[in-house]
Known about the structure:
Keywords: ATP-binding, Hydrolase, Nucleotide-binding, Phosphate transport, Transport. The chain has helices at about 5-10, 15-25, 80-85, 115-120, 135-145, 155-165, 170-175, 185-200, 215-230, 240-250, 265-270, 275-280, and strands at about 40-50, 50-65, 65-70, 95-105, 105, 120-125, 205-210, 235-240, 250-255, 260-265. It is α/β, with parallel strands linked by helices.
Amino acid sequence: MSTVVEVMEKTTGAMSSAELAGEQHSRATVGDFTVADARMACREVEVWYGPKKAINGVSLDIGKNEVLSMIGPSGCGKSTFLRCLNRMNDTIDGCRVTGSILLDGQDIYDKSLDPVPLRARVGMVFQKPNPFPKSIYENVAYGPKIHGLTNNRAELDALVESSLRKAGLWDEVKDRLDQAGTGLSGGQQQRLCIARTIAVSPEVILMDEPCSALDPIATAIVEELIDELRSQYSIAIVTHSMQQAARVSQRTAYFHLGDLIEIGETNDIFTSPKHRLTEDYITGRFG
Length: 287
Ligand SMILES: Nc1ncnc2c1ncn2[C@@H]1O[C@H](COP(=O)(O)OP(=O)(O)OP(=O)(O)O)[C@@H](O)[C@H]1O
Ligand SMILES: [Mg+2]
């Protein structure tokens, strides 16, 4: 995979300013936003905070077994869009979502759909690790308990262990499961939060800058984990690190002021972006 420096040297194919001028009105996304095996399908999604529109008619698929990265300057709407995907925006006063978002063909904004089980199917890992003020064991066991996923203590123990193993944390915590989750290092806490998300068998995992509070070693561990998790889950990750997007994702979406400007294979986005705004961002001229 190319480094950002190589990318800067190789970048070609930007649109002309005339093309750009036309685009400002059409808001058409450059690149194919559909995939053959969509897990989630978003169409013409708009998000409003009171009278202010933060997402401007975004259409985007998230495929099975893929990592999709979402990049773009601060305030362009990455977190807002990510939160639409499991209805976390419902918890924000004055926030309104229009358009359609399907998960396995089912409209997640359907009035009859309960957002609580939805948030188990579409789990979320936040920028700052946020373990519950409970033991390591309870952090992972909590979700399966409230969703009634196991029948007895032995099953729950096995689920806690397998989730911690998948998150690459088991060996580091197996002898201190009764200790506080908040007593772990930042990188361990983030893996604990990933174990907690995995424990309820999600289909999709949303990650909002999951490594921004981690050192390079913990970041490398989490990135390796993301790559392993792809075999079982669909993952959408917001990142400000273009190196990280290049390392972990197969497709990349570039957002700008609430618009999805460009989407494509990660390698193509970083080596031959088609839209001037994408090029400006990845070459460091913007944001
Ligand atoms: N709870 C909120 N109430 C009102 N406006 C909000 C709220 N959250 C976000 N916004 C606005 O929506 C727009 C998009 O914000 P968002 O947090 O989604 O951006 P972002 O791309 O995640 O930025 P960053 O990279 O800084 O995290 C911004 O203009 C922001 O001010
Ligand atoms: Mg954000």
